[in-house]
Amino acid sequence: MPEQINAAVPVPATDGTPLSAEDAKLVTLARSARARAGAVEGAAVRDQDGRTYAAASVALPSLALTALQLAVAQAASSGATKLEAAAVVTEASTLDGSGHAAVRDLAADAPVHVAGPDGSLLGTVL
Asked: pLDDT value at position 12?
């Protein structure tokens, strides 16, 4: 299968509205995954049944996945057919296009919250 190249997605600045408790949990899970692996980024997603999946980015010689791609893959391989929301913790100012595309494969309208390493919300991509 040919590699797809997806452009980075700009993250609109937050309007100051706090996240719901469920979405704040996603940020916490993403931060934990990032810290546990010492990775560049961490991500978490919530599926249609409320189950959560957290992952860190992977950079191996034969495999490279963003944290968001891996979290979506975990959800899909567990039988999820829809995502309610996602969160990414990163130092980047944009959302990786490949991770965003993976979320959109399972949900056309799920918000993707982007937070800094300290957990502060940078913005939400809709």
From this structure: 80
What are the structure tokens assigned to 71, written together? 């979290």
50 burial (CB, 10 Å; 0-12 / 13-18 / 19+) is exposed
Single pTM value for the model: 0.93
For 7-29, the pLDDT digits (tens) are 899 898 888 889 999 999 999 99
Q: What is the pLDDT of residue 3?
A: 55
Dist. CA 71–CA 77, nearest whole Å: 10
- What pairing do the DSSP bridges indicate for beta strands 52-56 and 42-47? antiparallel
List C-alpha distances in Å: 4 to 25, 62, 115. Answer: 31, 16, 25
Look at residues 114, 119, 117 and name the one whose alpha carbon lies nearest to residue 9: 114
Query: DSSP 3-state assignment of 104?
Result: helix
